TrEMBL record:
Signal peptide: none annotated. GO terms for molecular function: catalytic activity. It comes from Candidatus Spechtbacteria bacterium RIFCSPLOWO2_02_FULL_38_8. Substrate binds at R121. This is Phosphoglycerate mutase (2,3-diphosphoglycerate-dependent). SUPFAM superfamilies: Phosphoglycerate mutase-like. It comes from the Bacteria. Pfam families: His_Phos_1 (PF00300). PROSITE patterns: PG_MUTASE. InterPro entries: His_Pase_superF_clade-1, His_PPase_superfam, PG/BPGM_mutase_AS, PGM-Related.
Amino acid sequence: MLFFSQLFTRGLSVYIPKKPSELILIRHGESEGNVRLDALHEDARYQLFREVYKNYPLGEEFPLAIQHLARELINAYKIGKKPDHALELTQKGMEQSRQTGIGLKELVEPPHVIYVSPYARTLQTLKYIKKGWPELRSAKVKITDALREQQFGIVEQYLYHNLYFAFHPIHRAEFLADEYASYYYEFEGGESIARTRERVRVWFERAKEVYAEKRVFAILHNGTKLAVISELENLDFRQYMDTLRKGRFHNCGTTIYRTTSAWAIDDKMKCDREKEYNLRLWDIA
């Protein structure tokens, strides 16, 4: 449901959708999990596993040698028993966040509210953004579960979805049934992309109502950031998945949306996709 304000002019009722004057979306800085997955993808053992995996017939059991390789990789890259929500920023991620605060200060005015995911890495991102932009310390902060990362359930025990599928080939067949089947697929104890988008949509509709014509920051994750953008740009599930497959936002990647006119009657906020879609406001080698 969209919320509307009413404007009367020359005897006519004109409905203007409520929306923030500016919406700034910031992905968290580099985290322990990001470093771990980067290292996994560069590992020669994983590259061998992936070559076998991507060409293996759907639904068939993987050879024991491939399962052993998958188990070896899981054991090598799991970060102790730390759950996803507790994974922290690296030193690089802290500095990315601080520099993002410095950069944002030059681009936008302080927000009326900062929404943030409750995960350690997003809360730390906010902490270090404030170090770069000390005036934000007085800003209103709302920690909301709606912006948490997509829940992957049992897959977290296996580190990565294709390592999980090495032991569960039937689920792999369901996940890859067609080009977009993964959009609706739910791992045991987890949630689908579709469900993640729905909770983000509910949050966004409420935020538009409460903070109409205000500046709003949101510090969140790759998936939930894309979910907000999908609402703003009316992406269907195919467009969402096509965008997701193009790659992740930078760590601390910043997207700035602005209303174009107080008299606009559509529900769009505009973004210069070339300049302001995935800004990297830090410069760290």
